[in-house]
Design a protein that fits this description.
- The chain is an alpha+beta fold and 201 residues long.
- The protein folds into 3 domains: 47 residues, Helicase, Ruva Protein, domain 3 (Orthogonal Bundle); 92 residues, Elongation factor Ts, dimerisation domain (Tetrahydropterin Synthase, Chain A), CATH 3.30.479; 40 residues, GTP Cyclohydrolase I, Chain A, domain 1 (Orthogonal Bundle).
- It is built from 8 helices and 5 strands, in the order H-H-H-E-E-H-H-H-H-E-E-H-E.
- Strands 1-2-5 form a 3-stranded antiparallel sheet. Strands 3-4 form a two-stranded antiparallel ribbon.
- Strand 3 and strand 4 form a beta hairpin.
- Helix 5 runs antiparallel to helix 8.
- It is globular and about 65 Å long.
Length: 201
């Protein structure tokens, strides 16, 4: 079928993908806009996955102090080149990540950073809760795994829902940025301060 230039333009505005990629996506999906968006997202995420192996040593350290000066964040986000680090899009991404950390108080960037003893302690607590609730032994392991998944979604920055768009996690936000920008992007580390909080944990 013939793909109208207006459709290509609309898809480009929605996805940020190149003109040729938008045309090919519309041709592959016979002009179905929703399917074309999915097609581009799938291709974009595949392209992002390839880039995620590349070394990222440039980037920015962002400092964010929340209104009222009760919460502060320092976050390091890396990319591959100084050129990308200076772009408005990358700087906005880093600001959004700092805001996310201030608002949602994650404890780790990803699951890989969680110490084994923390996971073991969480498992013990969930087991004790399940037994206290009178759950049968046969389902307790499944209950523990389900509660652990909720713990990860709250404690790990990459697994949290993005505060500006709860349809996306921070990991999905990062992959979409990698796809658009064309460089690997890594959230390296962060520190979050809250006035008067204990230094323990």
């Amino acid at each position: 079928m013939e793909i109208a230039a207006t459709m290509v333009k609309e898809l480009r505005e929605i996805t940020g993908a190149g003109i040729l990629d938008c045309r090919k996506a519309l041709e592959a999906t016979e002009g179905d806009m929703e399917k074309a968006i999915d097609h581009l997202r799938e291709k974009g995420l595949a392209a992002a996955a390839k880039r995620m192996d590349r070394e990222a040593k440039d980037g920015l350290i962002e400092a964010y102090i929340h209104a009222g000066s009760r919460v502060g964040v320092l976050v390091e986000v890396n990319c591959e080149t100084d050129f990308v680090a200076r772009t408005d899009e990358f700087q906005q991404l880093v600001r959004d990540i700092a805001l996310q950390i201030a608002a949602m108080a994650p404890r780790y960037v990803s699951r890989a950073q969680i110490p084994d003893e923390v996971i073991a302690r969480e498992r013990e607590v969930y087991r004790a809760q399940a037994l206290e609730e009178g759950k049968p032994e046969s389902v307790i392991d499944r209950i523990i795994e389900g509660r652990l998944e909720k713990f990860y979604a709250q404690a790990c920055l990459l697994e949290q829902d993005f505060i500006r768009d709860d349809e996306s996690t921070i990991e999905e936000l990062l992959k979409a940025a990698i796809s658009r920008i064309g460089e690997n992007i890594v959230i390296r580390r962060f520190t979050r301060y809250e006035l008067g909080e204990s230094l323990e944990g």
